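Notes, p. 3: input format for complexes.
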Amino acid sequence: MKIDAMQIRRRVELEVLPRVERPGRYAGGELNSARGCGSDPSALRVVLCFPEVYEIGMSNLGFMLLYHLLNGIPGVECERAFAPWPDMERELSARGLPLYSLESFTPLSEFDIVGFSLSYEMTYTNILTMLSLGGVGRRTADRANSGPLVIAGGVCACNPEPLADFFDAFFIGEAEEGIVDIVEAARASKKRDSGKSALLNALADIPGVYVPSLCETFTTPSGLAAVSCGTRGNIKRRFPRDLDSIHAPPAFIVPGIEAVHDRIQIEIFRGCVQGCRYCQAGMIYRPHRERGPRSLSRNARDLFDAMGCDEISLLSLNAPDYSDMGELLDSLSAFAAPRRVSISMPSTRVDSFSEEVYAKLREVRATGLTLAPEAGSQRLRNVINKRVTEEDIMKTVSAASRAGWKKIKLYFMIGLPTETEEDVRGIAELVARMVETRGRSASRVKGKQVFTVSVSNFIPKPHTPFQWEPMDSMESLIAKKRILRGLIDRRAVKLDMHDVETSFLEAALARGDRRLCSVIERAWLSGCRFDGWSDMLKFDAWTHAFASSDLNPDLFARASMQPLSPTPWSHIDCGVSEKYLFLERNKALRGETTPDCGPRGGGCSGCGIDCSSK
Ligand code: SF4
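Output follows (614 residues plus iron/sulfur cluster):
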């Protein structure tokens, strides 16, 4: 029996929210959220889904930009939905209530488009929860000619194959550049009532859109399934070349409950000039494109007036690479300092720490300093093209101490290609020298360690120079963690090390092919949810799901692929050429580095993006 939005809202508010954790996740009605959705029958209705809890989704700038972008298109209404925590899933299922949008409490099945933002492989089972609970068929085959268009985008779409059977289409690139084409195709199809298959063909003709059901898979020499889209060719990533030509929303929704990042986020530039060889974002978001300091500072003021947060975060892959940082900080500090609003920079390359910039930051109650040496030896830093020396690192630690920083976070990775035990021990030795540089007694402030060392496990991601390399074995990673735990002095340093099983699964899902759809579905049917939360991960259930699909996760996570041979993702062209990735891989294995690219670096290193073309 069909239940309307009003009934859903009433029953959820009366029967469900009193019984679940953090009911604010599911209540909607926040400041700056869209109003009056569902009242215009001619509108194209889109529900934007984030397959994680509300607090995480609401902190995702890409998700919020897309929400405001879609609501800015005339005749389009965009609403939101987030993955329900297991208690909410249980309460809704027990009452036969569907997952609904926060703006109008409309079931997902009643929208024209159900769009997913994909930023982390370990959220894939949550996608199936949202589709199923929302009354939308899980697989494209279940929605052949009825129901909403189910489409996805985001960083994980650069290898869409593990999800190919669940999505009608994927958008490859930055939404500002293609979303209008997709909306217009969907609007035309709705008007003509031309049916899903005609819509999918129309979408497949839009540059940047991949329709898996219209492409064939074939088996590669390494036993993986690659894809051919026939005459349509590879799917080219789309991206805006001039960020200042894109309208920056003057307001974002103010979360109803505290979000993970409860602050104003402004994106100062996209892309990166550095070319770290393990970094997927550094490759797939090329080229480096900046917003002007005046438009950024204007936008920050508008956002402050509309949201009133006490922190402004300057988002990018490495903030000090921003060419007008001095001017930007001057104009931001002028209005932030008197209002005691702090300014933060989430990630900073060790050798680009400028005392002048950080002195400015300190003026406005800055938060913490984040540095990413990544590897413990110079040899391995050269292999991954992290061109920072130990001298740079020690200089930064001393400067940060002189500047009065009380929290310094350091990122390292283990399991990198060519890594030796000596390199792993090098991490502990480097950290010990940092503590010495700061002074052992000064390494604890108010009983807390100044240094936090976060050690993650290297995952060879698609569209990087290391995409063909196998991930290290779980046994080897566990042994390396044991070495670090034994060597690093936890009185002076807080040590966080990522879970190996989670990283191994992430690698299999990141490098998998279309056969993983059945694995993900089996894992979901056996109760897997929120796999990215270490206390929620059911590794045995995943192992069983692989086995019941006659697949071994090693085939994907630990595959050593023949360079330049087809991979499950080689039909997706992110702009950086396979040839460039291959050359960078070989330089890595020879321990050679490549300078920053672009006008302020070593010039163009020919990655294939062709920055010169407008
Ligand atoms: S085309 Fe050249 S300058 Fe542009 S991103 Fe690639 S390497 Fe850098």
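The chain has 20 helices and 21 strands.
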